[in-house]
C-alpha cells in the first residue's frame, strides 16, 4: 500500500493493482473459514484437482488438432504460440505458461486423491496423472516441467518419510512421461531442441530476452531501492528504462521475485518472502502433524504445490494473472486450514452432549441397562483415563476410515468432528515404545503422564501390540 501511495508515476494504476492481492487474501480467508470440516476441505482440494484434469483434457484434444475444439479455443486466444513448427497448448487459458502453472499446482492434489480414493475410483484417477503431466510437457514451459518434477519429488520424499515407499515407484513411472513426450516432440520438429535449451539471454521473435527484463528491473531498484516504482508499474516503466518499444499489456519481469523488487523495493520483497515462508511453514507443519494414511497425502500435496509455485516463480510472474492468482490463494487457504487446530464444524456443547447421551441410551438398551446407569458408567470410565471427556476409538494402524466394533462409520466420524470442534487433539499411541510416547507428548505439548503405559493398557484391554487412535479434549 505504501509503495502504491508513494509511486512516482502511474499512482492510480498502482493503487488499482492492489485489487488482485487483496482479493486473493480474501479468497484464502474464505477458504480457511468455510473449510472447517474435513469433508469440505477435501471437496475444495478435489475441485482444484478436477480443474487441472479438465484443463489437461482440453489441452490434449487441442494438441490432437480436432477442428471443433480448435475453433472453439481459438475464440479465447489472440493466436497460436508455437515453438518452431510445434504448437504449444494453451487449453482454456490465454498463454501456455498459465496452463502449465495451473496444471502443476493441481497435479499433486490429483496424486493425493488417487492415493486416498476408494478402489473403484483409484484407477481412473491414477490414469489421469500421466495425462496432466503430458499436458504440462505440451505447453513446452521449461519452468513448468521442472516445477512439476519438483512437486513429484516432494511427494516422493514425504512418502519415504512416512514409511510409504510403495508410492515412490508409481510416481517415478508417471514421471517417465516427461522425457518420452520431449523425445517425441523433438522428432516432430528438430528445432525444438534449440528452443528448449536456449539461454535466458536469447530473445524470441515476439519479445526481448529475460536478461533485458531483469536489467530494467534492477535499474528501477537502483533508482528507488526501498519502495520501488509502485505495484504493477514495471510494465509501465519498462520502455523508459530499456528503450525497447513494447506494449505494456504483455510486459512483466519473467521472475516474480525480481518484479517484486522493481515494483515494491526491498521492503516489498521482504514482505513477500515473509508471506511465502509462513505458507511453506504451515504446509510443512501440516505434513508433520498428519496422523493417518488418509491425511498425509493431501498435506504433502499442498506442500508440493507451493514448492512448484516457488520454483516456477523464478522464471515467470503469475500473480498478475487472475487464473493463476486464484489457484495460488486457494492453495494458500487450504494449507492454512490443514494446519489449523480445531478444523471441524463448530457446534454447541449441548448438541454434542445430547448426541453422547443418545448413544449411551442405545448402548444401555443393547445391554439391558436403563436410567442413569450408562451415564455413571461413562463418567467412571472417563475418570479412569486421566482426562475428563476422554473419547477412545480403537482403529487399525493408518486406517482413518475404519469403524470400531458396534459403531457405524458415519457415527464415528460425526463424533470425531464434534470432539475436534471442542478443541480435541489427535494422537497415535504406540504403547510398546517409550521413546515414541515421549516424542509424541512433546510434539502435542501434552504431559507425558497422559500417555502412560497404564492408560494405554486400559485403552487396549491388554492388546498392547495394537496401536490405537485417541481423541481427547484439551482441558485440565
Verbal overview:
The protein has helices at 2-5, 11-17, 19-34, 38-64, 67-74, 96-116, 119-138, 142-161, 168-175, 177-188, 192-196, 210-223, 234-242, 256-289, 296-312, 322-339, 349-367, 373-384, 409-421, 434-444, 453-460; strands spanning 82-83, 86-87, 391-393, 424-429, 468-473. Helix content is 64%, strand content 4%. The two termini are 45 Å apart. The chain has 2 domains: 2-339, no CATH class; 351-473, no CATH class. The longest helix has 34 residues, at 256-289. Strand 1 (82-83) and strand 2 form a beta hairpin. The protein is built from 21 helices and 5 strands.
Order of helices and strands: HHHHHEEHHHHHHHHHHHHHEHEHHE
How many individual domains?
2
Terminal residue distance: 45 Å
Name the helicity range.
55-70%
Order of the strands making up the biggest sheet: 3-5-4
Parts with pLDDT < 50 across at least 5 consecutive residues: 341-361, 363-407, 423-434, 448-476
Task: Find the count of extended strands (DSSP E, 2+ residues).
Answer: 5
- Beta-strand residue percentage: under 5%
- The outline comes out as globular
Average pLDDT reading: 73
Radius of gyration: 27 Å
Largest sheet: 3 strands, antiparallel
The structure class reads mainly alpha
Summed up, the helix count is 21
Amino acid at each position: 500500500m505504501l509503495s502504491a501511495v508513494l509511486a512516482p508515476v502511474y499512482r492510480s494504476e498502482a493503487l488499482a493493482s492492489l485489487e488482485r492481492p487483496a482479493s486473493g487474501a480474501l479468497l484464502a480467508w474464505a477458504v480457511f473459514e468455510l473449510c472447517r470440516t474435513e469433508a469440505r476441505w477435501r471437496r475444495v482440494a478435489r475441485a482444484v484437482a478436477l480443474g487441472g484434469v479438465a484443463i489437461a483434457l482440453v489441452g490434449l484434444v487441442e494438441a490432437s488438432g480436432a477442428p471443433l475444439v480448435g475453433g472453439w479455443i481459438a475464440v479465447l486466444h489472440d493466436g497460436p504460440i508455437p515453438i518452431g513448427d510445434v504448437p504449444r497448448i494453451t487449453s482454456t487459458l490465454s498463454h501456455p505458461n498459465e496452463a502449465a502453472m495451473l496444471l502443476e499446482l493441481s497435479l499433486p492434489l490429483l496424486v493425493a486423491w488417487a492415493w486416498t480414493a476408494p478402489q473403484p475410483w483409484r484407477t481412473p484417477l491414477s490414469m489421469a496423472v500421466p495425462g496432466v503431466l503430458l499436458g504440462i510437457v505440451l505447453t513446452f514451459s521449461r519452468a513448468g516441467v521442472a516445477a512439476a518434477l519438483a512437486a513429484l519429488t516432494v511427494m516422493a520424499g514425504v512418502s519415504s518419510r512416512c514409511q510409504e515407499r510403495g508410492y515412490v515407484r508409481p510416481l517415478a513411472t508417471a514421471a517417465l512421461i516427461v522425457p518420452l513426450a520431449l523425445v517425441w516432440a523433438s522428432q516432430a520438429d528438430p528445432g525444438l531442441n534449440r528452443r528448449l535449451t536456449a539461454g535466458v539471454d536469447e530473445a524470441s521473435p515476439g519479445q526481448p530476452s529475460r536478461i533485458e527484463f531483469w536489467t530494467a528491473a534492477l535499474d528501477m531498484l537502483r533508482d528507488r531501492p526501498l519502495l520501488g516504482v509502485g505495484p504493477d508499474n514495471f510494465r509501465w516503466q519498462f520502455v523508459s528504462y530499456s528503450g525497447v518499444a513494447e506494449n505494456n499489456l504483455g510486459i512483466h519481469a519473467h521472475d516474480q521475485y525480481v518484479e517484486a523488487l522493481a515494483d515494491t523495493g526491498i521492503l516489498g520483497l521482504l514482505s513477500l518472502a515473509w508471506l511465502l515462508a509462513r505458507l511453506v511453514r504451515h504446509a510443512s507443519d501440516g505434513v508433520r502433524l498428519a496422523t493417518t494414511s488418509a491425511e498425509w497425502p493431501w498435506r504433502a500435496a499442498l506442500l508440493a504445490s507451493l514448492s512448484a509455485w516457488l520454483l516456477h516463480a523464478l522464471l515467470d510472474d503469475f500473480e498478475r494473472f487472475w487464473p493463476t492468482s486464484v489457484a495460488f490463494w486457494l492453495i494458500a487457504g487450504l494449507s492454512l486450514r490443514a494446519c489449523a487446530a480445531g478444523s471441524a464444524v463448530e457446534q454447541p456443547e449441548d448438541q454434542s452432549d445430547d448426541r453422547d447421551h443418545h448413544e449411551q441410551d442405545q448402548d444401555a438398551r443393547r445391554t439391558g441397562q436403563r436410567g442413569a446407569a450408562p451415564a455413571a458408567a461413562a463418567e467412571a470410565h472417563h475418570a479412569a483415563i486421566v482426562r475428563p471427556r476422554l473419547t477412545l476409538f480403537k482403529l487399525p494402524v493408518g486406517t482413518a476410515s475404519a469403524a470400531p466394533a458396534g459403531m457405524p462409520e458415519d457415527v464415528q466420524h460425526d463424533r470425531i468432528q464434534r470432539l475436534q470442534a471442542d478443541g480435541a487433539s489427535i494422537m497415535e499411541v504406540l504403547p510398546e515404545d517409550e521413546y515414541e510416547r515421549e516424542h509424541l507428548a512433546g510434539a502435542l505439548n501434552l504431559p507425558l503422564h497422559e500417555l502412560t503405559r497404564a492408560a494405554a493398557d486400559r485403552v487396549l484391554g491388554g492388546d498392547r501390540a495394537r496401536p490405537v487412535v485417541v481423541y481427547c479434549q484439551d482441558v485440565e
